[in-house]
Amino acid sequence: MNASAASARVESATSTFLNRPRELLIGGKWVPAVSGELLDVFDPSTARVLAKIAAGGAADIDAAVKAARRAFSSPPWAKLRAIERARLLYRLADAVESNADELAWLESLDGGNPVRSVRNVDIAMAIESLRTSASLADKITGETQLSAPQGEGFGYFLREPIGVAGLITPWNAPFLMAVNKIGPALAVGCTAVLKPAELAPLTALRLGELICELGFPDGVVNIVTGLGSVAGQALADHPDVNKISFTGSTRVGKSILAAAAINVKRVTLELGGKSPIIVMPDADLERAANAIGDEICFKTGQFCAAGTRLFVHQSVHDPLIAAIAARMSGIKVGPGTAPGTQMGPIISETQLERVLGFISAAGAQGAELVTGGRRIDREGYFVQPTLMVRACANMSLMRDEVFGPVLGAAAFEDANDLEQIAAMSNDTQYGLAAKIWTRDLRSAHQLARKLQAGLVTINGGGGDGRLPFGGFKQSGLGREGGREGALSFTEIKAVSVGY
Ligand code: NDP
Predict the structure, then answer these.
(1) Looking at the DSSP assignment, which residues form a beta bridge with residue 491?
(2) Phi and psi (nearest 5°) for 221?
(3) What is the CB-side half-sphere exposure of residue 99 using CA atoms within 13 A?
(4) Which of 270, 295, 401, 480 is catalytic?
(5) What pTM does this model have?
(6) Which atom, in ligand 1's list, is nearest to the CA of 354?
(7) Which of 103, 123, 202, 365 is disulfide-compatible with 110, CB 3.0–4.6 A?
(8) Residue 149 confidence (pLDDT)
């Protein structure tokens, strides 16, 4: 099939999907919300309605949790042989791969990110994530303690599935986040209720269709769309949910933690970030500038691990800033589905207003605009890639999660004072990621030890979904990804045996 025929096929499959009624997946069946109400989903590139979704509420969440509970115990998903759970997850990975172009197109319409980037990053990582989860299904085991402390006997511990997992996902990487939670939960034997973000729910619903086609037992995965304050809250509050895995804002993460106290739910939280980038005087400036400029524009700056506070040694400050500004101002901004687009829109008018607010507040507080700073005059929610220098630690630009393509920069003086560089970098409530650029291995590894962050990258080390991912401080609780992620859906049971 030639390229234009392939793209016509993808667009036609997407529009067929968009024209189907959007319902909730409960107990293996697509059903309308009890309220019968619908919510509009907008295309952020045009601000026009793209689709309507069911506005699920507490009654729908309750039905979904009951279906997940039935699937957990009878028929027993957790007792299905691990190799069988793995087989289904491998099949799901293959199905995602076969539908990758369509999924990328749909997610681009829904969330605004460039199709190419969604295909090559989000969908590619999701396929890998599913295969990693599948490969772990029969490898999450306990341990045996051969000698007992008193008398004869032995002890061992089991890792059992936690039960029903409530999964609440954000809009900035909706497909990948859904898969990163569903994969490990199912691999270890849990069943799930997924509540996708109302701003970009469509690929999660498409994932639900693929799951239904592949022969997963009914009720193993349930999907309830709806408002976070209604459906999300009902899931977090539900007394028969054993664990909540949440990705989103620190504000909502804290409310989930409070709700979890009701029945002492297990909780994993992936929250906000304000990640520092440290550029030492000996860094490869060209590589650093390109990577830093690209990263702040990746997903239009709407990703939790983005490097948003740049600390650069004064001796290389001016050339580095000039190179980053050139890179950022050359980024092609447009609708995610337009050919050549490198950066799409912000997700919503509210988020765009919020981003512009940070830029004008920083300007009023004395930060200097190097490039960008404005809304782009066209339909949709577009903003220019923005770089500001002379940013101070007390500015909201340097303290709060902006979630937009806005980078604040400051110079530091003493490259030998690693304590001071680390203190400056750690001066935040967050601790998700930290990025170091230097050719000096000694200072790179010394700094890595001093930084309070769940992920430290050195010279652009990229995301590896198999590494544990999560935050220090208010960036979260627990870890996702790889073996650690799968373990987080298990409960430990120790057994002590006497002869
Ligand atoms: P939220 O934290 O509000 O949303 C994340 C998810 O939580 C969504 O599915 C949302 O539902 C749901 N939710 C909202 N309120 C509740 C609740 N009371 N109980 C349970 N679930 C709930 O993020 P926003 O969309 O409001 O974004 C605001 C800011 O959060 C961003 O500017 C950014 O700073 C940060 N953020 C961080 C993310 C990250 O990856 N760390 C991801 C997204 C946002 P719904 O959307 O349907 O209302």
Answers:
(1) 160
(2) -125, 125
(3) 21
(4) 270
(5) 0.97
(6) 32
(7) 202
(8) 63
